[in-house]
Amino acid sequence: MTTRTRAPRTNEFFTPGRIIMLVVAVVTLIFIFGNTRQTKIRLLIPEVTMPLWLALLFTLLIGAACGFYAARRR
User: Fold this and answer.
1) Tens digit of pLDDT for each residue in 5-49?
2) Residue 40 within any structural domain of the chain
3) Which domain holds residue 64?
4) Is residue 21 part of a domain?
């Protein structure tokens, strides 16, 4: 009777899915910081003026928080 031992995985952290997500995150950050003009944003009643990159960054963070919450609920 022989027992099989599992070979150790050396690149367990860098899976193809994680590499793709890292590339998407870097491209997203390049896009965000490339848009530096001022923009007006209206949320229901108040209107604020802020740099477009900051508005895009807030949107990214809100989307990421919603994604993490949805993934944790599963």
Assistant:
1) 665 555 688 888 889 989 988 988 888 778 889 999 887 888 999
2) yes
3) 16-73
4) yes
